[in-house]
Amino acid sequence: MIRWRKGTVEGVRREWPGAVELDVTISGDGPRRALAYPALVGRPEPGDTVLLNTTALAMGLGTGGYAMVVAVPDRLPPDPQGPGHLVKARYTPLQATVLGADEQDSPHHETLREADSLGGAPVIVADLHSALPAILAALLAERPGARAVYVMPDGGALPAWFSMSIARLRDAGALAATVTAGQAFGGDLEAVTVHTALLAARLVLSADVVIVAQGPGNLGTGTRWGFSGVTAGEAVNAAAVLSGRPVASLRVSAGDKRERHLGVSHHSLTAYGRVALARADVPVPELGGPFGARVAAEAAALGERHDLVPVAVEGLRDVLAAAERDWGVRLSTMGRRLDEDLPYFLTAAAAGRHTATLL
Questions:
Q1: Are 232 and 267 spatial neighbours (Cβ–Cβ below 8 Å)?
Q2: What is the pLDDT of residues 296-311, one digit of tens each?
Q3: How do beta strands 177-181 and 263-264 pair?
């Protein structure tokens, strides 16, 4: 289940808030990239011996191609200080205690204790983490200064620190804050459920718009129900039951080699067409041509359950390119860059453009 290795840190490659990327030499495997989360294991330094989990590295996972530092056994970090009794990654060797926004020791407990409404705030739901910067780019192009908070559930990566996009969007001022929900951790606030994460985003962090999408590294099996993005439908339900305004961002691709993801992905059709029981706005990009007609026809299957909203995409490619340049965030989905799967990014951006009209 786990490939355990020992390695020696040769140097630090780069770092961003919450994470340090390292060069390590692993006995028998040679030089490799490794990733450490200093809040969990302390900060490894050149010359340190590190205990590594190389499972994802051996599998060649696109978003998990690191040897993960489990411990710096010769230099353990200090014991944690302060309140907090939410345990995440529970009953695993790396379970960690954090302070939840919704727990009794939190300064926000009274705000959230009887909280039950988002007050009509828009909640954009997307399948993939890579939709986040595209949604923000269009939203902020139409509504500069809108305060957007990202809620990261536990369908993909559990540490928010893994995402360089979050760090760069925060640095650029495009993203106000992150709330990690369920077993995910490392956000500006922690929450037990997506429901309290949404409430914390709105009532504690004063979000104008909340964006819900799993972290990097979603899981799919090629079956109708076996994919982590099924939680997108559950997020629509959570937003609606809390009196938010759900906006369901479609996953669309013209470049995926898998037929089930070409056009409107089966992930969107299942999550929004079967799992989401509450009504949502579904922005449908006006892509034009035969492919645009295909997307519109496939999205029409959601029309009985949701409100389909045609959205013009003129100018959005330039908006996306400017965001990538100015924010320093890489627009990439499944290894495909902006112009290698433009409809994917235009569709996510269409959700941001539509949501701007709701503010």
A1: yes
A2: 999 999 999 999 999 9
A3: unpaired
Q: Does domain 109-356 have CATH number 3.40.50?
A: yes
List b or e across 255-266, with b for residues whose CB sees 16 or more CB atoms inside 10 angstroms. Answer: bbeeeebbbbbb
Contacts of 216 (CB under 8 A, 6+ apart): 63, 129, 156, 157, 162, 163, 165
What is the mean pLDDT of the segment spanning 117-136?
A: 97
Q: Quick one: average pLDDT of 67-89? A: 90
Q: Domain boundaries in the chain?
A: 4-71, 109-356
Which pLDDT band, with edges at 50, 70 and 90, does 229 fall under? confident
Contacts 24+ apart (CB under 8 A), 81-89: 86/190, 86/192, 88/158, 88/183, 88/184, 88/185, 88/190, 89/158, 89/183, 89/185
Average model confidence (pLDDT) across the chain: 94
Instruction: For 188-253, give the DSSP string.
Output: SEEESSHHHHHHIIIIIS--SEEEE---S---B-SSSS-BGGGHHHHHHHHHHHTT-EEEE---EE
What are the tokens at 247? 């906006």
Give Cβ neighbours of residue 320 (< 8 Å, ≥ 6 apart).
134, 137, 138, 331, 338, 345, 346, 349
Q: What would you measure as the largest C-alpha separation in the chain, in angstroms? A: 61
**What average pLDDT does the segment 77-94 reach?**
88
For the chain, what's the residue count?
359
Q: Is the pLDDT of residue 335 over 90?
A: no
Of all helices (H) and strands (E), which one includes residue 12? strand 4-16
- Ramachandran angles phi, psi of 291, nearest 5°: -70, -40
Homologous superfamily of the 4-71 domain (CATH): Nucleic acid-binding proteins (2.40.50.140)
